[in-house]
Amino acid sequence: MDNIDHIQYMGGHTNTTGGLRIAKLHALSAAGGKRPDVPGVIILITDGFPTREVDQLLPTTDELKKNGITIIAVGVTNLVSK
C-alpha cells in the first residue's frame, strides 16, 4: 500500500471513451472471452478529466449500460468531479 500511495502522477491525456471502447471490444465481447452467463462489469480508474473523444463519452457509456454492462468509476486524484 505504501508503494501505491507514492506513485507519482505523470499527467498526460485521458481517453476515457477509447478505454471503454477497448474494454467493450476486447474484454466484454464473445471474441474477448465474455460469457453470456456472467455479468459484464467495467471498473474505470480515472483522473477525472477526459481530454480525448469527450463528445463521445456519454453515448459510449449509454450504449454499454443499454447492453447490460455495469460501469464502476474510481477517481484517483483531487481533480475528480462528482
Average of per-residue pLDDT values = 84
CATH superfamily: von Willebrand factor, type A domain
Task: Give the SSE order as H and E letters.
Answer: HHEHE
The end-to-end span amounts to: 25 Å
Number of helices: 3
The tally of domains stands at 1
What CATH calls the topology is Rossmann fold
What's the CATH architecture name?
3-Layer(aba) Sandwich
Task: Summarize the entry for a quick read.
The protein is α+β, with helices and mostly antiparallel strands and 82 residues long. It contains 3 helices and 2 strands.
Helices and strands in order:
Blueprint lengths: L1 H4 L10 H11 L13 E7 L10 H10 L2 E7 L7
Parallel strand pairs: 1-2
Helix pairs in contact: 2-3
Fold and architecture overview:
- With 82 residues, the protein is α+β, with helices and mostly antiparallel strands.
- The protein has one domain: von Willebrand factor, type A domain (Rossmann fold), CATH 3.40.50.
- Helix content is 30%, strand content 17%.
- It is built from three helices and two strands.
- The protein has a two-stranded parallel sheet.
- It starts with a helix and ends in a 7-residue tail after the last strand.
Characteristic key phrases:
alpha+beta, Rossmann fold, two-stranded parallel ribbon, 3 helices, 2 strands
